[in-house]
Structure formats: C-alpha cells, structure tokens
Amino acid sequence: MISMAFFLVLFSGITHAVWNLFTKRSLNKYVFLWSIHIVGTLALLPYFIIELLQVELHAETLGYMAISALFQGSYFIFLSKSYSYGDLSQTYPIMRGTGVMLVTLLSVVLFGDSLTLVGWIGFCCIIVGLFIISGIVNRHADQGKTTHSISILYAIVVGMCVAGYTLMDKLIVQQLSPLSTLELSNINYVIVAFFMVIRAGRAQIIREWQQNWKMILIGCICSPASYFMFLMAMKLAPLASIAPIREIGTVVGTILGILVLKEKQGVRRIIMSAVITCGIISIAIWG
C-alpha cells in the first residue's frame, strides 16, 4: 500500500508540473484552464451526483467542502494571474514551497505539533530557497521591479490556497470517494472560470483551441489525473508522509521552465528548487 501511494504521488507531482507548463504557454490562462477542466467535469458529473444521493454528508463535511471551494476558486484566479506576470521556473517553486511551509508552521503554532532538529533545518531550507528563488537578492536580473513583485505576491497567495484546500480535502476524502472529491474541485474551477471566459469572449476561446488544442487535450488528462492520483494516495497513506513526495514536481516544473520556455537564471533556480524540495522531504521523513 505504501509503495503504491509513493508511486501515485510521484507521478502526481510530475503530471502537475506538465499541465502548469502548458498553462504558462497558453494565450489566455483563464480560457485554457477552463478548457482542460470542463471535459473532466462533464465526464465525472453523473458519478458525482449518484454518490451524493447515496451518501449522507455530515454537517462538518459540508463545511469542509465550502471552505475547500473558497480556496480552490481563489487558487484558480491567482494561478492565472501569477503565470501572466512571472516565470514558471520562479513562481512554481514559490507556490509549492509556500504551501508546505505554511502547513508545517500552522501545525506547530496552532496545533502544538513539534519539529525535530532535522525538521527545523528542513524548514529553514524552504525559507532560504524561497527567499533566493524569489529574486529579492538579485532583482536586477528580473524584468522589472513592479512585475517581479506582483508575480511573487500572486505565487505566495497561490501557495496559501494550496495549503488550505489540501487540508480540507484530506478531511473530505474521508467521506467522499477520491473521484467525487476530484469532481468537487473541477466544479469549483469551472464555475469560477466561466465568468472569466465569458469576459474573454468567443474569439479568445476559438483562438486558444486553434493554436493550443494539443496542449488542451493533454491537459485534460494531466490535470485531473494529477490530483486524482494524490487523492488516491491519501486513502492509502498519511498525508504528512506523502504530500512532500509530490513536491518533486517543484524541481520538474523549474527544469521545464528553463529548458522548454528558455527562462533565465536557470542554474540558480534549479539549485534553489532542489533545496526547497530537500527541505520538504526532510520535514516529512525526519521532521
């Protein structure tokens, strides 16, 4: 069971990095994200309705679903904005690292959890990695101070949203199946994106499909598959032991940004994304 959970989370991280690469390369981020989620939403909707009719949801679960919807809707909006302003190799590690850092810090401050010495070293690695990869210590290498600050801010907010909906979905998946929990996420994304897509107009939708239909079709598979594999893994193993493994996608996403998108500061960003990942794994295994 643990081995299966490990491989599920590993592939989840890789496929997550892939569809984020496609999002960064898309013309209209809202149209692209709506397109890759609408197919999965329609396909899983009958299953979702049937399960809801068969399961008597607890009041607490309904509350978790509402909070998760809030976080995921915000995640969708700020993810699009972050990729509109910043590089994939910079914003992606910040998003992923911030989420894990916040979960760890909240566990210590609010819930009385404790970290070992190695755990605190790992936590410091995440902070150092985020600080350096943000470009604060090397701003002249970025496109501009305003654009740089906005992209970093959006990436941090995305990380906060990741921490929020991950904790909520861990609770939701105790009563709903992984497929239904995934569909709940899809519905949130599609509803939020619908209003953005309407504003973009029919011409933007046609243009996106004409130029990026291959990426959209692959994204239709990678995006739901990524989170479904993670939800399945949460059924097989504790969240604390599997969530950090998914962050291997941090390094993968950074490398894709450097190699595919030809983004600058490649060596520094790859090294720091590796530092962040090592910090996350240290907390999970020895922290």
List keywords for this structure.
mainly alpha; 11 helices; 287 residues
What fraction, in percent, of the residue positions are helical? over 70%
Which regions contain 5 or more consecutive residues with pLDDT less than 50?
Answer: none
Number of strands: 0
Largest sheet: none
What structural class should be given to the helix and strand makeup? Answer: mainly alpha
Q: What is the subunit organization of this protein?
A: single chain
Strand content: under 5%
User: What is the residue-averaged pLDDT?
Assistant: 84
Shape: globular
SSE arrangement, N to C: HHHHHHHHHHH
Measure the end-to-end span: 22 Å
Rg, rounded, reads 18 Å
Number of helices: 11
Please characterize this protein's 3D structure.
With 287 residues, the protein is an all-alpha fold. The chain is 85% helix and 0% strand. It contains 11 helices and no strands. Helix 3 (59-85) packs antiparallel against helix 6 (145-172) and helix 4 (88-109) packs parallel to helix 11. The chain is globular and about 50 Å long. The protein starts with a helix and ends with a helix. The relative contact order is 0.23. The mean pLDDT is 84.
Structure described in brief:
With 287 residues, the protein is an all-alpha fold. It is 85% helix and 0% strand.
Please specify the SSE layout and strand pairing.
Elements: H1 2-25, H2 29-54, H3 59-85, H4 88-109, H5 117-133, H6 145-172, H7 178-200, H8 202-236, H9 239-246, H10 248-259, H11 266-286
Helix pairs in contact: 1-8, 1-9, 1-10, 2-7, 2-8, 3-6, 3-7, 4-5, 4-6, 4-10, 4-11, 5-11, 7-8, 9-11, 10-11
